Amino acid sequence: MREEGDGMTARPINPGAETHIGVRHAVPHIGAITLRDYCGTDAAISRAARVSYGRENADRGADADAKLIGFLVRHGHTSPLEMAELVFQVEAPIFVARQWLRHRTASVNERSLRYTEPTADAEIMPAAGLGDLCADPDPGASKQGRGGPVPVAGFARVMVRDAFHRTAHAYRGLRERGVSREQARSVLPLATMTAFVWKVDLHNLLHFLRLRCAPDAQRETRLLAEQVAAVVADAFPLTWSAWTEHVRDAPHLSASAWRALAGCLDPDALAGALGALPERERRETMSLITAAWAAKGGA
Amino acid sequence: MREEGDGMTARPINPGAETHIGVRHAVPHIGAITLRDYCGTDAAISRAARVSYGRENADRGADADAKLIGFLVRHGHTSPLEMAELVFQVEAPIFVARQWLRHRTASVNERSLRYTEPTADAEIMPAAGLGDLCADPDPGASKQGRGGPVPVAGFARVMVRDAFHRTAHAYRGLRERGVSREQARSVLPLATMTAFVWKVDLHNLLHFLRLRCAPDAQRETRLLAEQVAAVVADAFPLTWSAWTEHVRDAPHLSASAWRALAGCLDPDALAGALGALPERERRETMSLITAAWAAKGGA
Amino acid sequence: MREEGDGMTARPINPGAETHIGVRHAVPHIGAITLRDYCGTDAAISRAARVSYGRENADRGADADAKLIGFLVRHGHTSPLEMAELVFQVEAPIFVARQWLRHRTASVNERSLRYTEPTADAEIMPAAGLGDLCADPDPGASKQGRGGPVPVAGFARVMVRDAFHRTAHAYRGLRERGVSREQARSVLPLATMTAFVWKVDLHNLLHFLRLRCAPDAQRETRLLAEQVAAVVADAFPLTWSAWTEHVRDAPHLSASAWRALAGCLDPDALAGALGALPERERRETMSLITAAWAAKGGA
Amino acid sequence: MREEGDGMTARPINPGAETHIGVRHAVPHIGAITLRDYCGTDAAISRAARVSYGRENADRGADADAKLIGFLVRHGHTSPLEMAELVFQVEAPIFVARQWLRHRTASVNERSLRYTEPTADAEIMPAAGLGDLCADPDPGASKQGRGGPVPVAGFARVMVRDAFHRTAHAYRGLRERGVSREQARSVLPLATMTAFVWKVDLHNLLHFLRLRCAPDAQRETRLLAEQVAAVVADAFPLTWSAWTEHVRDAPHLSASAWRALAGCLDPDALAGALGALPERERRETMSLITAAWAAKGGA
Questions:
Q1: How far is CA C220 from CA A240, C28, D75, in A?
Q2: Which of chain C's residues have a Cβ under 8 Å away from the Cβ of B98?
């Protein structure tokens, strides 16, 4: 049975996704992601949404699709986004995989240290170089690793490398004495590399990206998530554009903050400022403003 | 085994929820909801969130809980909200149940027309009075039932009642001729009453309420959902308050709309206007504003 | 963007699934299913399972895949089966769709009677012919529709047709008087046709088939589910074969029944009888027998 | 707001569960589990199942409940089991938590090494004593840790202890040099302790127990899972009894194995042997046998 390589299919084809199939996107010292399979396209998402209206067979063109997808994403009607699916191979240290797999709405098959064992230093000690170590920007705060790379004295690296060597030594010692892999693994560090197949629909993938590409996400996870994001941006350009506009880059304002800000808006400037928005969104935004003014006035 | 009525428990107790246990909240001509069981409180949600920080045993008091829950809801850290669970008995017509059960992250046991049959006109024709019929506000648009109650000529009610009578007649005729319940039910109208146990965690329940209490939700579903909302507001006052402030009543602005609006803000008025916000939210809101100004200036 | 028709892809290709893409499999008087898209193959399932062992790149051939998939299905290691996904268009009456969509682990977009309205008698009254009506085999029991088709007097059909005509009449009457679609639909019968896109992974699809192809499933749902089953059997022959052998056609015996039966086994006949089983399964089956004998002897 | 300690509730009370609330069940050198909250009882499960029949208000007594729950579990009608929910606090090493949290249908809040840091050797090196190390029963096979405890030379323990000390040293060294917690943690071993709140419904909990209490499960995970199992057995005695009888201890036989075994059954012994089974199960078991004989005869 033919499995890999170019072949004919009767399925919808996603040109942006096709260019990534089988291409390994690596992040030095951390890991890599590779798109293995997918189903769905921006057009398929639009078509699924049009089923609600009984118009799934209408061919509306990319402009109508863009408008519809913008509407879906803006109003949180995300079920059509579940109609696209992506399958990635992910290589990452265990402490990154732990965060990744906390996202429950995905299918996963992961390498097990019950059935395999790290054979090379490269696997036991992937982070021996440790990439870029980041200092706490504010050691007293709970915020993590956002200070950007800072020089860590060579002595620290030596300590880490030494700890990893002892760890590898202990692992092998236990194995040689007949201790099972599943128990011996307990001495391995959280930096040990793992690999997993990760199959996820586009709605849940975008939720993952919102959390894991955020500035306060762990740096190692974020760098891999950004590789995933680049694939998504190529494969689903209309959905990506709607999502960055209406979710990723949208401001989170509370009801109180919004009422306060609405009171600072210059009414005379609004018409001009909002003129560039799509008609429907302009109307909805004006409604929000007048509602806030009314609430304010009433208060 | 003792099952109902007041008894002693070592579990956390939710005073607001207790007052609703076993109380049937009915909506005339549509249905009813009854809280049967629950677990969790606002304090339990806070405690679950503090597990991340290894401080789950600290007793911080309601003020600290309110602040923490506000932070969780504002930043979309919703997993602690899954720690509360509610079990409702719901009675509703099938066309409402269809929307309700489209929400997949819940546990459900529903009455089956394979095993029961409507025995009284009240069950086959619950909507014979049909409650308030709502005209299309704009017959050409896809918007539904938002015109508020309007008089529907008595003749229309007569037609509906007649259709229901024929339907009931056909159902009984098929049953008398030995046709199975599961097939005979196909003639029953979507207005036929059903009942189900619905167990859902608070995170998914709030998502349900956001969609089903919205102004554009189906009126019949919305009226029942508002009864559910009233129970939630009593049982989880801190979470409810955070959710209305940061989700339900928060404005949905796109990145473009926000940049446009930021340009209309009067800088001199801001400090005063935002002064009433909690310190951390005030700071984050100012960051959003200056980022929008910078993006604007850079463009 | 190219969407339909044959094209080149770098993805794994499933020859059995390809032959079904876009082919509408209809069941007269009930509905139809059409495969729209898929990802995955038997080989991809095996490969995902081999990730656990770090051997996902080994090409083992169909025999090794069959053996591995048999092992996975027999031992309930179902996560690799989630790696295949199928997207169907389903057309069915609402009472069938209600059962279908009770399966929660799937993605769905369904036609809405809030946005569309049945325009032809064929849509309002799909079951006017009512296909084959089935009598209760045992009118006193709760078992349903298993008596096979039986003649239902023409008079019953006339009643049903009359009820549907009145229903359609009432629906149109309400609409003409300006009642919204979402309210007017409440008079429509459960036999009204609906349509939905249904995306589901192979593990959850097989669970659906186990329940909905069972002899006690509702006849109308079963006939459509059997069309889905035929597609799955063509697309995933190894998984299908393992599943029928180890799940669908496997006996459900309790621990007590098994101990009782083991006591009735003729020890001399066993070796010959089990000789045809695969070596590993033969060994595991013998272990079950000797364990039951030991439990029996011990009691 | 009252949170802990005995108080009055109008909810159904589960006497078996109440005795475990707040009781920490520890496994030396490995971890502990503590029941924090619950909802549901065997009777509530039965009542939910009776909703299908419209008989949820009937009080049937424990015998009828036992019979109904046996039927549900035997036939895989598991949705009523979702109506019970349990909330545990779990303390375990990370390599155990990784397996535990692979079960996706649960709600989880876990301690994060981004926000906390191990302060005592006891936390960094919980397994320094390493409990019982288990040798591979068959070093060439993939089977793990099933040889029972075996003596591991004191030298191996010294190596492990040394590796843990170096690890702890490296962690502290990195922290002192200002490296963030989220990066420094990468040197910590998989044996590092973690803690999490785990909320799961009874259906998914039993699925967890089936896999994690199995003889081939990892020993450390199994020992903790058995503590969970003991709580479930006390809290849901009817469901537990049905599940051990129809799932945990039931034989997994393929269709082929069953046909082969049926041919070895002594027909004269059957009636006596099956006499002790409940009537309905006896009938269903005889049907399986005669069907296998017929298939055999036909082949």
A1: 41, 10, 21
A2: 94, 98
pLDDT at B265: 96
Amino acid in the structure at residue D9:
T
pLDDT tens figures, D121-152:
555 544 544 555 555 544 444 444 455 555 55
Distance CA A29, CA A220 (A): 9
Q: Average pLDDT over chain C, rounded to whole?
A: 87
Write out the H or E segment, with its range, that includes residue B89: strand B85-93
Strands D193-201 and B24-27, sheet pairing: unpaired
pLDDT score for C132: 58
Name the residue among C10, C18, C62 with its Cβ closest to that of A10.
Answer: C18
Between D65 and B117, name the one with better pLDDT: D65
Least confident of A157-161, B22-26, C212-216: A157-161
d(CA D65, CA B143): 48
Query: Which of A9, A49, A108 lies at the smallest CB-CB distance from C7?
Result: A9
ipTM score assigned to the predicted complex: 0.90
Residue B130 banded pLDDT, cuts 50, 70, 90 = low
Is-catalytic flag, C210? no
Strands A31-39 and A85-93: antiparallel
Contact A174 D133 (CB under 8 A): yes
Q: Cβ-count burial of D204 within 10 angstroms (0-12 exposed, 13-18 middle, 19+ buried)?
A: middle
The answer to whether the CB atoms of B108 and D56 lie below 8 A apart is no
Q: Is C127 helix (H, G, I), strand (E, B) or coil?
A: coil
Report residue B193 as tokens: 């009453």
CA distance B193 to B118: 8
- Return the number of CB contacts < 8 Å for B and C: 172
pTM: 0.93
Question: Residue D87 and residue B51: Cα distance in Å, rounded?
Answer: 14
Catalytic residue among D50, D74, D212, D222: D212
Contact D179 A136 (CB under 8 A): yes
Which residues in chain D have Cβ-Cβ distances shorter than 8 Å to B62?
1
Query: Is residue B156 predicted with pLDDT exceeding 70?
Result: yes
What is residue A147's predicted lDDT score, i.e. its pLDDT?
52
Residues D203 and D210: their CA atoms lie apart, in Å, by 11
Instruction: Decide if C41 contacts C202 (C-beta within 8 A).
Output: no
Q: What is the DSSP string of chain D?
A: ---SSSEEESS---HHHHTTBT-EEEETTTEEEEEEEEE--HHHHHHHHHHTTT-TT---HHHHHHHHHHHHHHTT--GGGGG-EEEEEEEEEHHHHHHHTT--SSEEEE--TTT----SHHHH-TTSS----BB-SSTTSS--S-S-B----HHHHHHHHHHHHHHHHHHHHHHHTTB-HHHHGGGSBTT-EEEEEEEEEHHHHHHHHHHHTSTTS-HHHHHHHHHHHHHHHHH-HHHHHHHIIIIITS----HHHHHHHHTTB-HHHHHHHHTTS-HHHHHHHHHHHHHHHHHHHH-
Q: Backbone dihedral region of C279: left (phi > 0), alpha (psi from -120 to 50 degrees) or beta? A: alpha
D129: phi then psi, degrees, rounded to nearest 5? -70, -25
pLDDT at residue number C165: 84
Which positions ≥6 away from B240 have C-beta within 8 Å? B232, B233
CA D70 to chain centre: 20
pLDDT in tens, B228-257: 999 999 999 999 999 999 999 999 999 999
Q: For residue range C192-208, what is the model confidence (pLDDT) as tens digits?
A: 999 999 999 999 999 99
Buried b (16+ CB within 10 A) or exposed e, C20-34: bbeeebebeebbbbb
Q: Please determine, for residue B137, whether its predicted confidence score (pLDDT) is greater than 50.
A: no
CB within 8 Å of D39: residues ≥ 6 apart: B37, B38, B39, B85, B87, D11, D12, D84, D85
Q: What percent of chain D has pLDDT over 90?
A: 64
